[in-house]
Amino acid sequence: LPLIHVGIFFSLAVTAVTEFIAPEALVWADHFDKRVRGRKVEKAEWVVLPYKNNATDNVWNITRFWPDQPNYLRGVHVEHRRKDSGKKDFKWLGREAKYLDGEWWFYGLEVTAYDDEGYELDRRQFDVPTKAKDWPAYMPQLQATWNDMLLDYQINTQGKQAASLPFNQLRGYIDRQTKVSMKKRASLLVSMHSKLAVPWVCLIAVLMGIPAGAKTGREGMLKGVMLAFIAFFLIWGTTISVQWLGKIMLLSPILAAWLPNIGFGLFGASMALRIK
For residues 76 and 175, what is the distance between their CA atoms, to the nearest angstrom? Predict the structure, then answer.
């Protein structure tokens, strides 16, 4: 029983580390690697970022996006398209945009409206030649957050692995991707459920190790070590294979993440209960 408690403790500890420590540690490690290789870490480096908010059908084109300061944008072009025809409905241009108190505020805003056929109706210029020209314009219709944009940049542009994101952050990202392909969504869901499933391999290792240790304790240490290696590669290989089946949609994402744990856990528990 004490060994079971150890397995549970380490499973919870690994979960906590992957959720609260590992994401920041990966960023630090990336910067450290650049410094070691002699490459300067530029905190002010900007990129051109295309972004689509599927929840509101808004298409963003950001001329200057700073990954280290994603709540401040320069040269923002946003288009809203009609759901029925896909044609332009509104267009917003902003010299600058800031994310303040949970909402976007545009500076030097220009708004263009279009009719049902996609032809321009009117344009209202907010950048008037007075002291009021730098007043921010409140944009409640733009529901995307800077965190959405940063995640999209990290996953689609930088190639960041979804598995390295915290569970809640990844779940929120998936919920907002309403129009991605079924295969990509399945892959993201497998990564999300695996965030919770993989740490419990610690408990499974204990459940399988107890009967293996009891059986080989008197037969030699070498045999026990060999069994441990075999069990490790068997669990690892099965987990990777089943996750792959989930990502290509041959298994449901939640089953692909938890099936190896359920199978090896039941096997280990049954073997442990037979020890006399």
Answer: 25
Question: Per-residue pLDDT tens for 105-124?
Answer: 999 888 888 888 878 876 55
Of 221, 201, 228, nearest in space to 15 by CA = 201
Per residue in 124-159, pLDDT (tens digit) is 544 444 344 567 888 988 888 888 888 888 777 655
Number of C-beta neighbours around residue 171 at 10 A: 16
Q: What is the DSSP string of 139-186?
A: ETT----HHHHHHHIIIIIS---GGGS-HHHHHHHHHH-TTS-HHHHH
Stronger pLDDT, 230 or 159, i.e. the higher one: 230
State the DSSP code for 153: I
Find the angle CA(49)-CA(55)-CA(59) to the nearest 5 degrees: 35
Element (H, E) at 138: strand 137-139
Helices (H), the chain: 2-16, 22-36, 146-152, 167-176, 182-197, 201-216, 221-247, 253-273
54-82 pLDDT per residue, tens:
777 888 999 999 888 889 999 999 998 88
Q: Tokens representing 24?
A: 């920041």
Phi, psi of 116 (to 5 degrees): -65, -25
Length of the chain: 276
Give the predicted TM-score (pTM) of the model: 0.70
